[in-house]
Design a protein that fits this description.
828 residues, alpha+beta, Neutral Protease, domain 2, seven-stranded mixed beta sheet, six-stranded mixed beta sheet, 24 helices, elongated
């Protein structure tokens, strides 16, 4: 920090010009605060410039009647459906598009054909050899042979006439015999079947899990029937091929679904069960009724009952009948392994039955946390959006790690069973991972199952917004909940990386899916809430967005515009920087100059100048001459006036000049000279490119600390370099930019004055490398199958002696190697 004596007029001139002085003449001005007009679509009667649905807003509707059968032995689903499609658009439609998402499992699907190999580095093991994971290679080879995808038959009109249809990958077009005019509806039907994928092998958002121990199967069934593609004002038909990442955008409607399964199965499903008397025992029905008003979960199917069901396979069947109103999708799960618990939650406009379904392998974790997590989710999400409108909310444990559908979600974490002792334990990561994934997936009921964004195009609109509310919700679970997404410090590594694309990138083109679609938008919204707008303005605007677009289909522009409209804040600079670029936050605190006001009083100013002189370092020559004999000391008669006075002596002429100057000043000018303020010019450089507010922690000589928050608009004239004026009552001893790490600054080493050393640890190790020893390896005792409990032995029962050196004959060595038992898979 440099302290410079200066006149008030000179200082004020400097402060008025300092910001402009940093703009390099040859540097092109980059206006970070220009409006998004060139990027956002023009407002229409369907979508207003304020971000609300317009007075002519419309959306299509599709109602389904489905009859389906689960073939447990062959792991297949077959069924028939009747679809009634309502054309609420102003357009006449000559054909309809449906999604056939199961076609992603066809061996020749686009998803498989466009797969690229991992980088060569990804195939290299630590020692440099080429290698691949067992699971990865199995997925590739099984996928080539798996007979997946829909088998569609009997596509027909309501009167039974065949309908021309064309299948294009994961999409199917049905040509209508007569155009469907605005306000009209059409009904059609079809039959279909498909083989269910083994989720642990082929992955995916649904599938089955086989339990070797008890020879039972658990099914999680989704994307399981042909569904109407979305048709809306912004995109027309949303018929982008399903390649695996971009999820689904669908139309709301009513479902009437009957599912036939083995009689000993328990079914969890979207919607409400219509025939409990046909599929549940009297005891189960009584427990279910009790659960509606219970204060803690009630076990509907106990673990003992589920374990008893595992021991045999019923040859009979039962049909479960469900209905769901105003949902955009439908999913279900089925197994005889299910334990089932439930608890009601009723508050304000929410009256829901929270339910969990899980195999014994999920306990003790699931019975303790699953249903409690569902209720916590609904309670918290209601605060930030709207009352949960559906009658049920379900969490199912199975092979899918985490996936959401209306009223039902699939969640994976479960305890680990020790193979030797059978003991069930779970790690801290598993416990909190389970709670977090349930909060996240149940939370998806709000975004996008109700606020129905286009997931096929904009993953961040459901995953990012939902991850943000999840971040808020888990903080209400317990202090220091390990969430990992939402806090600005957690995104810094990604913001530094070269593998970024803007958040506003199509779902299938994201390089780091989790960071881009989940973590970065969640962090951006958290910063917007805590640092830019404040909680009150943000929460009001966010609730307004959720309310406006409940059961409607918003676009990014609708979200951006609503947040600005409802908060009364121009945020175009924020959306541009965080959502449309890969710029990072890196604001460097470069230089500080300290000023105090020149009082014009020679008594004060010359004393101040003398004190500054005294602070200067003593030269090395003067230090070494300190004890030197001086003539003036031995002959004092040589001293005169100038030996008693120096340039800091106040003269009468100085005093007279001061009086004359003061006589010319107004009272307010004299007051300014006497205030004794400390003024600092602080230079900042925007190295990362993303403009953000300045959050300045000022430490004064007395130890007092204050926070000064400067809006991002401080960068509006010069987005690369600025100078900020700080005024204090006493000297400043330290200054820190972003002291709470709230802006995701990627380099905090340049955020402080004085600079702070970065602590780290240096690990010492021996520079030794073990050389291969073939003789030792050859003489190592041979391991045999543990089940045999013995080694290869001679007739006398003693182990056969091994030669001290390998045979000289290469053929003999090869023969011996071929006789060795192979190492178990997975061991090296």
């Amino acid at each position: 920090m440099k302290r410079s004596p200066t006149s008030l007029a000179t200082f004020l001139l400097c402060t008025s010009l300092c910001a402009a002085s940093f703009a390099a003449p040859a540097e092109k001005f980059d206006d970070k605060f220009r409006q998004l007009d060139e990027l956002l679509p023009t407002a229409t009667p369907y979508r207003t410039a304020s971000g609300a649905p317009g007075h002519q807003y419309w959306q299509q509707r599709a109602d389904y009647t489905i009859r389906a059968t689960l073939d447990e032995a062959n792991r297949a689903v077959s069924g028939s459906e009747q679809v009634t499609y309502h054309n609420n658009s102003p357009d006449t439609l000559t054909y309809l598009w449906l999604q056939l998402d199961q076609n992603i499992y066809k061996s020749d699907s686009d998803a498989r054909r466009v797969q690229t190999a991992p980088s060569r580095e990804a195939w290299m093991k630590p020692r440099g050899e080429e290698g691949a994971k067992y699971e990865g290679l199995r997925n590739t080879l099984v996928g080539r042979d798996f007979d997946g995808g829909f088998k569609i038959a009997n596509v027909r009109s309501a009167n039974g006439a065949p309908l021309k249809h064309v299948i294009n990958g994961t999409m199917m077009r049905i040509d209508l015999p007569t155009p469907l005019k605005p306000g009209e509806r059409v009904s059609f039907g079809m039959e279909w079947t498909y083989k269910i994928n083994e989720q642990k092998v082929l992955g995916g958002r649904s599938g089955y899990e086989y339990f070797e121990e008890d020879k039972n199967t658990l099914f999680e069934i989704a994307q399981w029937h042909p569904r109407m593609a979305a048709y809306y004002d912004v995109a027309g038909w949303q018929h982008k091929q399903f390649l695996g990442s971009g999820e689904f955008t669908l139309e709301f409607g009513d479902y009437d679904v009957k599912i036939t399964v083995p009689a000993d199965h328990i079914v969890a499903s979207t919607g409400e069960l219509q025939n409990p008397g046909d599929v549940l025992t009297a005891t189960q029905r009584q427990r279910l009724e009790q659960a509606k008003t219970a204060k803690k979960p009630v076990i509907i199917v106990t673990q003992a009952e589920a374990e008893a069901a595992e021991k045999s396979v019923s040859k009979a069947t039962k049909t479960w009948h469900f209905k769901a109103k105003n949902v955009r999708d439908f999913a279900w799960a089925s197994s005889r392994k299910f334990i089932w618990d439930a608890q009601g939650y009723k508050k304000d406009g929410t009256n829901v039955l929270a339910m969990s379904y899980y195999p014994k392998e999920g306990n003790p974790l699931w019975e303790k946390y699953s249903t409690a997590s569902i209720i916590h989710t609904i309670e918290q999400y209601n605060k930030y959006s709207f009352d949960y409108p559906y009658p049920t909310a379900i969490s199912v444990n199975g092979p899918v790690g985490g996936m959401e559908y209306p009223m039902i979600s699939f969640n994976g974490p479960r305890p680990t069973k020790d193979k030797k002792t059978g003991e069930l334990t779970y790690s801290k990561r598993t416990k909190y991972g389970l709670i977090a994934v349930i909060v996240h997936e149940v939370g998806h009921n709000y975004f996008p199952m109700i606020v129905n964004s286009d997931e096929r195009q904009w993953t961040w609109m459901d995953e990012g917004l939902n991850s943000f509310v999840e971040y808020l919700a888990v903080q209400a679970w317990e202090k220091d909940f390990p969430i990992g997404r939402g806090d600005p410090r957690d995104i810094v590594g990604y913001m530094r990386s070269a593998s970024q694309v803007p958040i506003m990138t199509n779902s299938e083109s994201l390089l780091q899916f989790g960071n881009n679609a989940y973590a970065k938008p969640a962090t951006a919204l958290n910063i917007l809430r805590e640092t830019i707008l404040g909680r009150e303005l943000f929460d009001h605007a966010f609730r307004e967005y959720a309310r406006r677009w409940k059961f409607k289909r918003p676009t990014p522009a609708d979200f951006f515009r609503t947040m600005e409209d409802a908060s009364g804040t121009d945020l175009d600079w924020f959306w541009r920087g965080w959502f449309y670029t890969t710029d990072a936050v890196d604001i460097s605190l470069d230089n500080i100059s300290e000023f105090t006001v020149d009082t014009r009083n020679p008594e004060v100013e010359k004393a101040w100048a003398k004190a500054r002189k005294a602070e200067e370092p003593v030269s090395i020559t003067d230090q070494r001459n300190a004890s030197m004999p001086r003539r003036i000391d031995t002959q004092p008669e040589l001293r005169d006036f100038y030996n008693e006075h120096d340039e800091f002596t106040v003269t009468n002429a100085d005093r007279n000049k001061y009086k004359e100057a003061m006589a010319e000043l107004e009272p307010w000018q004299k007051e300014l000279l006497a205030q004794g303020k400390y003024l600092y010019l602080v230079d900042f450089t925007n190295k990362g490119g993303l403009v953000m507010p300045l959050i300045l922690e000022i430490t004064l000589k007395s130890g007092k600390k204050t926070i000064e928050r400067v809006p991002a608009e401080v960068w509006r004239y010069s987005p690369q370099k600025i100078t900020k004026l700080l005024v204090t009552d006493e000297p400043m001893t330290a200054l820190t930019q972003d002291p709470y790490w709230e802006t995701a600054d990627i380099d905090t080493s340049n955020n402080s004055w004085p600079r702070k050393a970065v602590p780290s640890r240096l690990e010492l190790f021996k520079a030794e490398r073990k050389a291969p020893d073939m003789m030792k390896d050859f003489n190592t005792k041979l391991k045999t199958d543990e089940k045999e409990g013995k080694e290869d032995a001679k007739p006398d029962g003693k182990p056969e002696a091994k030669p001290a050196v390998p045979p000289a004959n290469g053929a003999a060595a090869k023969q011996e190697a071929e006789q060795q038992p192979q190492k178990p898979a997975g061991k090296q």
